[in-house]
Amino acid sequence: MRKIALTLAFLPLALGTPAAASVVNDPEGDILSTFAGVASPDLDVTTFFVILNAANNFVLEAEFAGAINPATNALYVIGVNTGTGVIAPFADIGQPNVTFNQAIIIAGATGTGTVGGSPIDVVIHGDSFRAVVPLSLLPSTGASPGEYGFNIWPRVGTGNNNQISDFAPDNALLMTVPEPSTWLMMLLGFGLAGTAIRYRRVVPRPV
C-alpha cells in the first residue's frame, strides 16, 4: 500500500507539468562488498526519483529498505552531472563509471541538506526523504537541466570509499527523461495497477 501512496503523492507534481522526470528501482540487499561499516536498512537504496518541475526546482525522493535512523549518522550524497561531470573516484570499489561535478548532501542524523554550502529543504518520513533543490543551485555546465545525470550513494563518513554502502543506479548516472505526458501515464498506470492487485475480488463461480 505504501508504494501506491508514494506514487499517488507524486501526482500533484506531475499534474503541475514537470519539465522532466526520472525514476529508478535499486535491488534490496545489494550492499557493496567493499563496505566496511555496519550494514543497516537505511543504507540500502531501493527507489530513487528525480523530478524537474515547472518552477525549476529539482524534487528528489529516495526510499530505503528500512526507516532512516538518526543513530546511523548516514550521509546521503547525490552526485549531479550538469554537463561536465568528470569526477569518477569510485573505481576501487567497482563503480568506475559514476561521474559528477556537483554534490547534494543530506544528513540522516539531522534531516538537513546542502548544495555547495547552501541549505535546501529536506523532509524525512519513515524510510524515505524528499529534497527540493532550486535549479539556481545547480547551474548548467553544458547539459540542459532536463538532461542532468543523478546518482545517490549513502555513506557513513567522509573519508575512504569503503564507507559507501550502496549506489543507485548501480555504476551509472540516472539519465532517463520521459516526456511529461509519458511520466504522468507511468504514474497513473503504476497506481491503478497496484490498486487493482490489492483490491481485486474473486467472483464465485456459479454452482
Account of the protein in words:
This protein has 207 residues and is α+β, with helices and mostly antiparallel strands. It has one domain: Immunoglobulin-like. Helix content is 16%, strand content 29%. The chain has a nine-stranded antiparallel β-sheet with strand order 1-2-3-8-7-6-5-4-9, with no helix packed on it. A hairpin with a 4-residue loop joins strand 5 and strand 6. Helix 1 packs antiparallel against helix 3. The two termini are 34 Å apart. The N terminus is likely disordered.
List strands and helices in order, with pairings:
Layout lengths: L1 H8 L1 H5 L4 E6 L19 E8 L4 E8 L10 E7 L20 E6 L4 E4 L2 E8 L2 E7 L14 E7 L24 H20 L8
Which key phrases capture this entry?
207 residues; alpha+beta; Immunoglobulin-like; nine-stranded antiparallel β-sheet; 3 helices; 29% strand; globular; disordered N terminus
Radius of gyration: 18 Å
Q: Indicate the proportion of strand residues.
A: 25-35%
Shape: globular
> In which range does the helix fraction lie?
10-25%
Q: State the helix count.
A: 3
Task: Please give a quick description of this structure.
With 207 residues, the protein is an alpha+beta fold. The protein has helices at 2-9, 11-15, 180-199, and strands at residues 20-25, 45-52, 57-64, 75-81, 102-107, 112-115, 118-125, 128-134, 149-155. It has a single domain, classed as Immunoglobulin-like (Sandwich).
